[in-house]
Amino acid sequence: MQKICVVGLGYIGLPTAAVFARAGFDIVGVDVNKQVVERLNKGEIIIEEVGLPEVVKEVVDAGKLRASLEPEAADVFIISVPTPIHEDCTANVEYVRSATKAVVPHLEKGNVIIVESTIPPRTMDDVVAPIIREAGFDPEKDVYLAHCPERVLPGRILIELVENTRIVGGLTKEATTKAADVYRQVVTGEVLETEAVTAEMSKLMENTFRDVNIALANELTKIAARLGVDAHKVIELANRHPRVNIHQPGPGVGGHCLAVDPYFIVEKAPEEALMIQLSRDINNSMPDFVIEQIIKLTAELKEPRIALFGLTYKGNIDDVRESPAIEIVEKVLANPRFDVRVHDPHVRNEQVPFPLSSFEEAITDANLIVILTDHNEFKALDPQALIAKMDTSVIFDTKNCSGLEQEAALTVHRIGDLTNLQAIHVNKPINN
Ligand code: SAJ
User: Fold this and answer.
1) At the N or C end, where does the chain have fewer CB atoms within 10 A?
2) Is pLDDT of 343 > 80?
């Protein structure tokens, strides 16, 4: 059986190592984090993913997976390390570079090296191949270099690693086939073969497609606010056309993929990637658009009490990375006029630099609830409980998810339908 060395034991590398180990491969997993390595060798993991603890325990106990701080000789190397963005929105490929350098001393002719990390176009040619060449190998003849981007969804990683279609792009045709054959031993979905740069671009374009389409929905929302149209209704009706799929507007785009990957394209072709950059700008402008509405809604209140609901970048997860909700909360908290409560049933206090409140605390005496994330809890809010506890029962739903209906005692504004947005009035005069 082939031996695989997986470099980077994070959200993708570790499940990948586990899936190959379960299929019978001998796996050594490498990470620079000592704690990750020590725990893994005891069959324990420090990340959360459905089903993963069980599979890892099984393969570690069976001697199929072990961890190390250093790479070692293997038939196949899989590099799965992060590619964060710099302050100036260019990709930081340092981890890919250092992982490749760490692998090189253990390389032998005929080895396969696969990069799974999301990388800017041409990184395989311009960053990875030169390191291999410097080490004395011909990257087009002696070893087989390929990019195989991951495309799994957290919570379903073990299933999607096996069932999703994979794209494999090698530096040469032979490298493509060699790398694709590695995946064919565990993947039940299709394994599609292409060149390295095409594989790099297709991964980036998948997430860019979504980002651009969300930007279109967000732009529609702003147009609708100006023209007095309900954008949600427009989207619902337009999407009845068999070839139209307008996405959903919201408070912005978060997560470590959609909010990051489009910049990898802009970086390499800034003069051409105009729509991609503009879409990033539109989505990045949404937190301020939400705050503008909060300011309009509370303009006539002296010290408005505001409950902000939801911090994660999407519903029913605990991930706050790049979340637009965090930006909104921090800006609202910075405004001394506002008395703010923040509530998210999926987030623990130590994840964020401000205090969190319970649902009860947040709604009691509130003038306004702003929904920023579509958690199930916020889809099923009980209007009577809100009316009973809030001071003025006004909801601003930026995810159009609450299911709350406008009624005499309850005012509901949705992000795509701001036609009737008016300042909240209180019966008592505000000054004196
Ligand atoms: N969002 C909207 N409107 C929409 C859809 C999403 O505002 O109509 C927002 C969400 O609220 C969230 C953001 O976009 O803030 C991203 O959410 P998502 O669920 O679209 O994407 P991710 O980042 O969780 O996962 C994506 C997936 N890519 C695609 O769907 C094309 C996933 O398959 C990839 O594996 C992942 O990126 C990745 O690792 O690249």
Assistant:
1) C
2) yes
